[in-house]
Write a structure and sequence with these properties.
By secondary structure, the chain is an alpha+beta fold. It contains 2 helices and 14 strands; from the N terminus they run E-H-H-E-E-E-E-E-E-E-E-E-E-E-E-E. A hairpin with a 2-residue loop joins strand 11 and strand 12.
Length: 245
Amino acid sequence: MVSSVGTTSGTSLLSQAITAAKSNAATNAASASSSTSTSSSSSSTSLSSLGGNFNQFLTLLTTQLQHQDPSNPTSTDSFTAELAQFAGVQQQVETNSNLTNLISATQDNQMASAVSLIGKTTTASSSSLPLQSGSASMSFTAPQAGDVAIAVTDSSGNVVKSETVNASAGTNTWQWDGTNNSGTQLTDGAYTVAVEGSSTDGTSVALPTTVTGLVTGVSKSASGVNVDMGNATIDMSNLTGFSGT
């Protein structure tokens, strides 16, 4: 656990934490809004382009056969090479299609497995902090004992909570009661957290965070399977553990 310190302590660290939290919020928002459309669009465009090349190659090959000079036909070696290219392009189209289907099937299996996590308390390496039932919890590892600054922003990047705490060396847990800097209770949802501390040589360093939340659902995107902690969406690959409560 950590304890609060005076507001005049760690001003520089707090400023860096606020900047980092705003940056993380912008990154999370951009990733959530564009990952599915960008990935699926890129995959679709690539396959469409390959399919177009395949059809164009087929048209050129048949046109060549139709218009070749009977007295001077295409040599056997050249014709064989062209057929080999034709077969290669065809295989590539089929491979891409089958790979897309395989990825989709794998994600479906992951979703089926992830359903068992619903209702369980889960930890994840993430800056997305889920506020559920008016509270949130996260942990971080401090290189040494001393001041550590914590900043929380909402989905729009506005700083709602910031404070400097006294942390011990090693793993520390920070509990948030869901109130902003003015003491007003905020609504449940997805927030972003950033933590800044000092390394053993005295320089400031960003401390990775592990958030805790109750899994309320699972979803699939082009980048993989996600777990939902309330309104916070976290990639399943970032999960670090879970319990039955």
